Amino acid sequence: MPGKTKKKAAAKKKAAAKKTTANKKTATVAKKPAARRVATKAAKPSKAVARSSDSMSASERIDQRIASLGDWRGVRLAEIRKLIHEVDPEVVEDWKWMGTPVWSHNGMYVLANPHKDKVKITFFHGAQLPDPKKLFNGDREGGKWRAIDLREGDKLDTTALKALLRAAVDYNTSHPVPKSKGSRA
Q1: Parallel/antiparallel/unpaired status of strands 108-114 and 146-151
Q2: How many domains does the chain have?
Q3: Phi, psi for 184 (deg, rounded to 5)
Q4: Residues 109 and 34 in one domain
Q5: What gap in Å lies between CA 36 and CA 42, rounded to an integer?
Q6: Rounded CA gap, 69 and 185, in Å?
Q7: What share of the chain is helix, strand, coil (3-state, %, to 5)?
Q8: Please, are residues 110 and 85 in contact by the beta-carbon 8 Å criterion?
């Protein structure tokens, strides 16, 4: 019987060795997806590139947006921006909502977005502003916002737009910015 015990022990060792080898193969297979995950993680410097663009100022982003348009919409957006700065030298430029130029003075008062077939100028408190020249031609039904849609070839009444911009700044400076609910100040 001692011979049979040795054979059984050798068979057990062989079976254990096979399991270990099988486990090693499984472990190797399991490691491959992990290696892929590491490679995927290593392939994410695009976010680092995106973060470096976060260091751009809003003014630089607006400059970049105007240059990237390369057509009449870029020219129109640059013209609107210039008028805003003429009317309000203390204006603060901001970049909101994943690509919208916004101008503020004691709160946001106007934004301008290039669309496929127009440039839309939206006044945050447009419903409260006088519009004797009837510039507002888009989104006139809202209780707060009003917009001007400018299409290619439209003539811009710069005098009337400047008056609207002045009225928007005046509105913002005469109405305090409400504190947010989470504010402790």
Answers
A1: unpaired
A2: 2
A3: -105, -5
A4: no
A5: 10
A6: 41
A7: 55, 15, 30
A8: no
Q: What residues contact 22, with CB distance under 8 A and at least 6 apart?
A: none
| Residue in this structure with the two tokens 């447009």, named with its chain if needed | 126
Q: What is the pLDDT of residue 185?
A: 43
Q: Which amino acid is at 43?
A: A
**What is the three-class DSSP state of 121?**
strand
Whether residue 159 sits in one domain with residue 100: yes
- Name residue, tokens 């009337």: 160
Q: Is 80 exposed, middle or buried (0-12, 13-18, 19+ CB in 10 A)?
A: buried
Q: 63 with 103, same domain?
A: yes
Q: What is the pTM of this model?
A: 0.67
Please tell me the distance from the alpha carbon of residue 126 to that of residue 112, in angstroms, as a whole number. 14
Range(s) of the domain holding residue 37: 2-43
Q: Residue 119: which H helix or E strand, with range?
A: strand 118-123
Question: Consecutive sets of 10 residues in the chain, 185 residues long: mean pLDDT of each?
Answer: 64 64 50 47 39 76 95 97 98 94 97 96 95 87 90 96 98 80 49
Where is 25: in which H helix or E strand? helix 2-42
